[in-house]
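Hi support team,

I'm filing this because I wasn't sure whether my run with pyridoxal-5'-phosphate finished correctly. The job status page said complete, but I'd like someone to confirm that the output block is well-formed before I use it downstream. Pasting the exact inputs I used:
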Amino acid sequence: MAMKFAARTSDLIDSPIGAAFAMLDHRVNNRPLLDLSQAAPGYSPAPVVADRIAQAAGEPNTSRYAPAAGLPELRDEFAADLRRSYSASDVSAGDVTITAGCNQAFCATANALAQPGDSIIVATPFYFNHDMWLQAEGIEVRHLGSSDELLPDLQHANELIDHTTRAILLVSPGNPTGVTIPPELIADFVELADRSDIALILDETYRTFRPTEAPAHAVFDNPSWRRTLISLHSFSKDLAIPGYRVGAIVSGAEVQRETLKILDCVAISAPRIGQEAAITGLRHAGGWRREQAQRIARLQDHFAKVMATAPGGFELVTSGAYFGWVRSTDHRSTEETVRRLIVEFDTLVIPGSAFTPTDEGMLRFSFANLTPAEIDELGVRLATY
Ligand SMILES: Cc1ncc(COP(=O)(O)O)c(C=O)c1O
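And here is everything the job wrote out:
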């Protein structure tokens, strides 16, 4: 008898990034590809970080497991980074759990809070791996609607909460929309979650890529944040080290204890070499990190200008962080539009249907890895669609 697979996993979509790449073989032209598929930095880390990685590779400790919650120096540095970024915060190293990337931070958090029969409210459009993980774990996903500005709908969240609900999940700035949720609305969600005795999970992967350096929210200012907020972070984008797998959960002690059980089973500890890279990045690459964020903000302006005329009928709805959330006016299905963009226009984007419960004719354009000249070329190619 052939082996059988778990329906919860086999019913999942394949990785949307992998599916898009698979279509590249069918391209009919010979010109360079415009790759707007991935949300990971295509550029190299700061030289000081790369040097530290090379040096750390030769040190005997680097090949060993790290302490379960992360290297103490990294937990300290990151807590200090958070205190600086969120002004009045009282976050300390004890609130920080280092993970092998923010995806793992989310998975451990979800497993700590919910099991089959429980539900988590997920703001739409969602980051596809969040939705996929909850499905794989048999946790009911309740999709939360958004306003015209693609901000999560507080009233709707209130209506969705019942005795099965364990958390509300928000991402700010959002993937795929790039929309930054204002601090006041984040505070309202924390208040709703707190009142309902559930968690507010806030994925802050793109916080450095907001249009402002002002604090992303004021929730850390009140020590009672630990009752409700679980803030998730990634070093992948800030320090351009996605392959070294470092992220963090910022939470109270009970959440930390539960997530550590999961992290121990899954990875034992986050890779030491990535943690060493992150320590050096936090200590010595602050200026570099700001420059990259400013460079990407300039690219976003350029991208928005090129898209302003809706070339080829592709309308930019929102943009921010690494992303443009684009409406296609093509009469074809989204899948077919994406296929045509890849095969005939050498332009690789991700179908919006990977981020929404139903096909809404949307596309995600991740412009952050293009040069200004490539963004101009994008406009030219789209105009001929
Ligand atoms: C919203 C969001 N969360 C988490 C991640 C994963 O980050 P990491 O590389 O730290 O696992 C991504 C990566 O694209 C993301 O967009």
